[in-house]
Design brief:
This protein is α/β, with parallel strands linked by helices. The chain is built from twelve helices and 24 strands. Helix 7 (about 230-245) runs parallel beside helix 11. The chain binds shikimate-3-phosphate.
């Protein structure tokens, strides 16, 4: 059942908020916990549907999972994983499918992973090629899901990623823990480093040298406690809403402030945005408070070197660009075409429907900002971040808008519309 959501122009957004536990960190805590011997306790586990997919896949492999809301206990042990009785369903979650491929490459049985229509269009050879080089049998369906992995003894690998991808990096490091010898992964640009920061908590040393991370084979993980900070990518939508609406101020507490995830704040500041980030603790991940206030924004060119650190925030940034004076531009971001939908095309269509001037480029987009937006009927194209970005645009557009297929926000931020209701004083 697909449902649309009416979003009316808002006077302002105000208030103090928390956002659900970080999706990327929740996936990793669950998978590392599933591999580790003994019990792992995860607090503030993400309420995202994607992270529930990871837990369900782990259960399919025989991992014990007890969940009570945001508290999750995982009883793992990768040596005890057994062939699942049925294909594992990763749902809409590329992270689940790509990251689990790593540990499965070392398991001596065949596992099939399936996904929904969107996930079944996303590229998998980027993870399949290096896992094959390590010795696993990995079958894709013309480069896509379903993915079948028959694991076995692995040899360590030195791999250079052609495109920065934290999911592929994670898969290879997790496969490497079970391999003979060292496995190292080199990236062209830095991507999120949550796996590198979390592995030592589970007892595995990670050597890091610039853009390279490596692990020793034959390393066993032991259960640990993980406290998941709020999701910076979810916070981005509230931050942009506060910047573009008049008389607004939002404060988001307990949010992840990893520099591999907060480059969008740097871009918003370069656009003239009033955004403060205050660190409250820095280990194992930087966490703190973000305060954002109404600002007169101007366009900018997003530095290509920052693209991997803000790839999930481009939808929110493009909305900021539509409300800014002058030209907002993102280039070298062709990866956006391989997300839950083709986000370049979806943003261009959605923002144009509001009356924004948007130019789609093969590797990015240009928004000539500053034109008043008018309410419109727009489509999320079943992509959670497109739904949230277009909803924020709708808050600043005249009259009422309708966001079709809006329920997909549950993929990362199920309470998004409740939070928006509180922020706009309508809840
Ligand atoms: C993620 C990595 C990124 C990102 C995704 C989450 C992760 O994907 O877009 O939402 O948790 O490692 P890629 O690895 O495909 O760049």
């Amino acid at each position: 059942m697909s449902s649309s959501r009416k979003v009316e122009k808002a006077r302002s957004v105000r208030g103090t908020f928390t956002v659900p536990g970080d999706k990327s960190i929740s996936h990793r805590a669950a998978i590392l916990g599933g591999m580790a011997e003994g019990e792992t306790r995860i607090r503030n586990f993400s309420e995202a549907a994607d992270c529930a997919s990871t837990l369900a896949c782990l259960e399919g492999l025989g991992v014990g999972v007890d969940r009570s809301g945001a508290d999750v206990r995982v009883r793992g042990g990768v040596d005890a994983w057994r062939a699942p009785a049925a294909p594992l369903d990763a749902g809409n979650s590329g992270s689940t499918m790509r990251m689990l491929a790593g540990p499965l490459a070392g398991r001596p049985f065949r596992t099939t992973l399936t996904g929904d229509a969107s996930l079944s269009r996303r590229p998998l050879e980027r993870v399949a090629v290096p896992l094959r080089a390590m010795g696993a049998r990995v079958e894709t369906t013309d480069g896509h899901a379903p993915l079948a992995i028959t694991g076995g003894p692995l040899r360590g690998l030195r791999h250079e990623l052609p495109v920065a991808s934290a999911q592929v990096k994670t898969a290879l490091l997790l496969a490497g823990l079970q391999a003979d010898g060292r496995t190292s992964v080199r990236e062209p640009m830095p991507s999120r480093d949550h796996t590198e920061r979390m592995l030592p908590i589970f007892g595995a040393a990670v050597e890091r040298d610039g853009l390279e991370a490596s692990v020793a084979g034959g390393t066993r993980l032991r259960g640990a406690a993980v406290d998941v900070p709020g999701d910076a990518s979810s916070a981005a939508f509230l931050v942009v809403a506060a910047l573009v609406l008049p008389d607004s101020e939002v404060r988001i507490e307990g949010v992840l402030l990893s520099p591999t995830r907060t480059a969008f704040l740097d871009v918003l500041r370069a656009m003239g945005g009033s955004v403060e980030a205050t660190l409250v603790r820095s280990e194992p991940e930087p966490v703190g408070t973000i305060v954002a206030r109404s600002s007169a924004l101007r366009g900018t060119s997003v530095p290509p070197a920052l693209v991997p650190s803000l790839i999930d925030e481009v939808p929110a940034l493009a909305v900021a660009g539509a409300f800014a004076e002058g030209r907002f531009e993102v280039t070298q971001a062709a990866e956006l075409r391989h997300k839950e939908t083709d986000r370049i095309a979806a943003l261009a269509r959605g923002l144009a429907a509001f009356g924004a001037r948007v130019d789609e480029r093969p590797d990015g987009l240009v928004v000539e900002g500053g034109r008043p937006l008018r309410g419109a009927r727009v489509d999320s194209e079943d992509d959670h971040r497109i739904a949230m970005a277009l909803s924020v645009a709708a808050l600043g557009a005249s009259g009422a808008s309708e966001v079709e297929r809006a329920e997909c926000v549950a993929v990362s931020f199920p309470s998004f519309y409740e939070v928006l209701g509180r922020a706009t004083g309508r809840a």
